[in-house]
Structures are given as structure tokens and as C-alpha cells.
Description:
alpha+beta, two-stranded antiparallel ribbon
Amino acid sequence: xxxxxxxxxxxxxxxxxxxxxxxxxxxxxxxxxxxxxxxxxxxxxxxxxxxxxxxxxxxxxxxxxxxxxxxxxxxxxxxxxxxxxxxxxxxxxxxxxxxxxxxxxxxxxxxxxxxxxxxxxxxxxxxxxxxxxxxxxxxxxxxxxxxxxxxxxxxxxxxxxxxxxxxxxxxxxxxxxxxxxxxxxxxxxxxxxxxxxxxxxxxxxxxxxxxxxxxxxxxxxxxxxxxxxxxxxxxxxxxxxxxxxxxxxxxxxxxxxxxxxxxxxxxxxxxxxxxxxxxxxxxxxxxxxxxxxxxxxxxxxxxxxxxxxxxxxxxxxxxxxxxxxxxxxxxxxxxxxxxxxxxxxxxxxxxxxxxxxxxxxxx
Length: 363
């Protein structure tokens, strides 16, 4: 990336190590960062690196050469000196001068360095370690398990679960769909919402005769079953009646039970529902008048040919204790039954208790 001058834009400063001729790398924090570096470098160049012409003209006096290993050419030329001189005094040797000489050599020696040059220790990890320690130490807090151990969690506010149950007789199925937009079955929903979630309906097993949905009072877990007590023949119908009675007897008081009929709630032929079947439903809250019709137009207490029926109750609550709805003609003389026989019931369940929200039947 280049600027207006077409020169690369400096995006990162990295002058701690340089390799150019006569480079001056970054100094550390203890340096004064003034012209003293330039002065000392100049002294070093003139005193140590600049070659000295050793072609000394012949003179009559004796030349004395003193070895000086710190100088580039290795010797100090002591001009004209007497032969009798026994000791050469190489200038000022006090501590300040020695310190200055060493500073000059240290500053200037980088000029003779081949390759990367640096005044600082580029492998020093102390800065990184100190910064990391500050970050870790500054961000430390006492864990919530200590600070919050005496703080009580907010109370859990239970939310009701809403169910919609649609029951219909055979001739009312089309009417039920046109009035509710849903096929007969069990659904969950949210208030003020037109979205319904299928639990069990005619598209996935909800079928002729008695459909039973059980709901756990604690977990709201559901199961569903269907018992066709109309049957394809008298033997099958009788067997299904017995199966339904046994199933209801197996349920416990921790469950809410919803029973909804579809198409035909009575037994086929001239069979009469046994009293133990009627008693079994009354133990779940059915009315004292509950019964079933036998054949077209033949009443047997409460239900008739292709009526719609819904019962919401629980095991052992007793007669007349549940939510019960029946709709349909009290007598029907022609097949296929009452064309208006359907029920649309909504309930809510909270803390194991059920409440009717609304019920809708044709006028």
C-alpha cells in the first residue's frame, strides 16, 4: 500500500533491530535518546575504526610503538620519543574517563557489526510476562459460587399449557373442519395465537370411537391411545371394550385424562355397553347419566348414534367431577347421524390442575 509520494506507508514500527549501514536502532528506556549517541559514534569512528597511515617517514629519533588492543590497527604510535622513556602514559585513566571510553566503544561498536544490529535485548520476555500478569491480575473476580452462594434464585413462575380438543360425529366432520380450520384431534396452542401444534389427530392415528390423551401432572409428558369399540364385528367390538376398561384401570392419580370421540361412540350391532365400561368413565369424572346408544335411534342413557363427546378428568375423582361435553341429536332415525354433532373445547393445565377456557358447539 502506497501514499501520495508512492512510497510504502509505514504500518508497523519495528526499529529494534536494523541491518542498514551506520544504522541507529531503537534505544531502551534507560537511554537519554539525545545527540550523545551520535557524538560517541563519531568519536569511535575517528579513534578506532578510521585507518591510520603507518607509512611513517624515517626520522633520526627512535619511534616507540605501544600495543593498544582496543584500537583498530593494534598499536599506538608515540611520535618522537626518547629511547630512554621507560613507560608510556596513555592519557587520562580516572574513572569518569574510563566510563566515557567504554560508552564510546559500546555505542560505536555497532558500526562494525555485520548483519542485524540492536541496542536492546530482543529476546527479553519480561515486558510480555509483566503485561500478562497485569491483565490476569486486574481481571480477577471472586467466582459466583462464592459471591452468590447466599443469593436465592428467582422463583420459577409456572406457565399454563393450553390444549384444544375437537370431537365430531361422522356426518359433522366436514362441518367441524369448516368451523375450526382443524381436523378432529388433540392440539396445543398459545393464547392469542392462531398456531396449533398437533398432538394426536386424524392425520396421525386419531380415529373412530374413543381417543384418549394422558398428561403427566408434573412433567406434562403425554401419551395417546385409541379404542374402536364400534369394531368391524361384535367380537372385535367386545374385545376393544375390555381393552379400554383395562387401560383406564391402569392409570394413576398423577395423570390428567382427556377422552374424545370421533365418528361413532357406540358399540356396533345390538350390543349393549357393559356397566363396568360406564362405571370406568364415571370414575374419571363422567356424569351419572353417561351411557351409549345401541343402533340407530336407540338411546341408552347419554350418548346416541354418532354423537360428539369430550371428557376431561383424572383417575378416582368420581362421578360428575370432570369437564364433560356432549353434542348431537337425542335420537337419530337415519344414517349417518346428526350433521351438527361436534365440539371444540379449550382447556389450560397449570400445576396439575385443569381449567376450561372455552367451549364451542354449533347453534
